[in-house]
């Protein structure tokens, strides 16, 4: 294990989260789940002030979020603009404010747990840079899930019934979006959908 991976694993372990299952590699890049950051925030007792709305339009939201962990405080801005950095397949509803809030909170959590230069999948765009350096002294850097993956997961989070999840995954728009993703990311979305089905009461054996 490189120093970079050891640093990530050490920080996650501090909050009771193993690297396995929470952080994974795709083509040399490391990724982290949004839900992992939410659990870390709860474990670390991170609290958030009410967000400050910097921009409020029909299809755009820009929020300033302040988070606190003990005596420390950090802030960040989350942005979501439909059709630019937040793409929603027709005819699904857009949740610009929810997406902007997720992005800002994730950035604040990462600052508070001292993972500099780390980003979560809720960021607007995936990093297209070359794989992580093999230099063991390189800083810990986790790349983004593609924005489309985050948007699909956000839609799945908004599905309140088993039927709604199934309809979403079977829709032509979702199938078209999945076709644009690399196989690893398609599998990630499908696994997330199965988890959502189970959470809504769908028998595990049928969701598998």
Write the layout of secondary structure elements.
Blueprint: H1 3-14, E1 23-26, E2 29-32, H2 34-43, E3 47-48, E4 52-56, E5 60-69, E6 72-81, H3 96-112, H4 147-158, H5 162-170, H6 172-179, H7 183-199, H8 204-207
Antiparallel strand pairs: 1-2, 3-5, 4-5, 5-6
* Beta-strand proportion: 15-25%
Count every helix, treating DSSP H or I runs of 4 or more residues as helices: 8
Distance between the first and last residues' Cα: 32 Å
Helix content: 40-55%
**Which secondary-structure class do the elements indicate?**
alpha+beta
Number of domains: 1
Based on DSSP secondary structure assignment, what is the total number of beta strands?
A: 6
Spell out the helices and strands N to C.
HEEHEEEEHHHHHH
Sheet with most strands: 4 strands, antiparallel
Mean pLDDT: 78
Radius of gyration: 17 Å
Question: What ranges have pLDDT less than 50 throughout 5 or more consecutive residues?
Answer: 125-144
Cα shape: globular
